[in-house]
Amino acid sequence: xxxxxxxxxxxxxxxxxxxxxxxxxxxxxxxxxxxxxxxxxxxxxxxxxxxxxxxxxxxxxxxxxxxxxxxxxxxxxxxxxxxxxxxxxxxxxxxxxxxxxxxxxxxxxxxxxxxxxxxxxxxxxxxxxxxxxxxxxxxxxxxxxxxxxxxxxxxxxxxxxxxxxxxxxxxxxxxxxxxxxxxxxxxxxxxxxxxxxxxxxxxxxxxxxxxxxxxxxxxxxxxxxxxxxxxxxxxxxxxxxxxxxxxxxxxxxxxxxxxxxxxxxxxxxxxxxxxxxxxxxxxxxxxxxxxxxxxxxxxxxxxxxxxxxxxxxxxxxxxxxxxxxxxxxxxxxxxxxxxxxxxxxxxxxxxxxxxxxxxxxxxxxxxx
Length: 368
Ligand code: ADE
Fold this sequence. Notes:
Layout: H1 5-30, H2 43-53, H3 58-71, H4 75-79, H5 83-90, H6 97-113, H7 121-125, H8 132-143, H9 152-161, H10 170-183, H11 189-202, H12 221-224, E1 242-252, E2 255-261, E3 271-272, E4 275-277, H13 282-291, E5 303-308, E6 313-322, E7 338-344, H14 346-351, H15 356-364
Parallel strand pairs: 1-6
Antiparallel strand pairs: 1-2, 1-4, 2-3, 2-7, 5-6
Helix pairs in contact: 1-10, 1-11, 2-3, 2-8, 8-11, 9-10, 9-11
The protein binds adenine.
């Protein structure tokens, strides 16, 4: 059941002054010191940080942000880098599509906007990989545009402030966006957006919200009704399907055979020891068998790595294969899902993008 829009928006309007005042006073005292929160704000740093912060916690992002900005201090630096190298800098942060989109976006800014990050929402939205969230974040935080940022944290704060139970319904996204836009002040909208996100991250948390520390508790319907623990309703997620895979760690001296994933798809463009679906296709079983120094059947798996992704769980058996000295799998076909194969030393791997799954597999094989 969704509530009619009109009355809720009218409520948001009538409570907006109190909410803004209390929230901004709290944020002035409690904002975390973060490396992208410079004065004045650097649009490039805002862009990089907001892309990294999608699906990833602040504490994980901070060291990656520092290293990335040292390597790519401005949009031009990223635009002139090779994608492989950029994926290397992103290694371990996950969701590599974000790195590819940021790289494409940087190139577009250089090509179409003379390397100056555009300052209107429409122009920001025209960049590859920049959607509602990122355009509103860059627009408001770096350029003072009155565009509401609506991420999971903000949606939870809004759902509780107005006791909206239907967070899961698609129609509620629209309502949450309209409320967020109504609450947003014309002065320093970026600060207000950041304050809403900060409140969601630090106080109005998913588990047990810290209502006693909340600056807007007097304006909160969920708290008034004692519903802060049941709003938003927990996500009804089907159990993620389990996919069974085999990772072949083929070593030759101090090098390991690494495959570069196809561009599109899981871990697109990243390097990892070739991974096959179970049961492994006879063609690829023969291919692996032929690489072996000692003849005969493939060895048993030495470990299994469980890798949890957003929509599926990968159960990866790790197979260690000692290759013949003259084995040269780079000539000929590459396994399905890959575009290239290469022998790599540990040093080579550090310079390329390797997924966190790859690192876990290599560790399980005793190689890292
Ligand atoms: N999460 C994502 N972006 C954020 C920001 N700018 N401030 C606080 N938390 C965030």
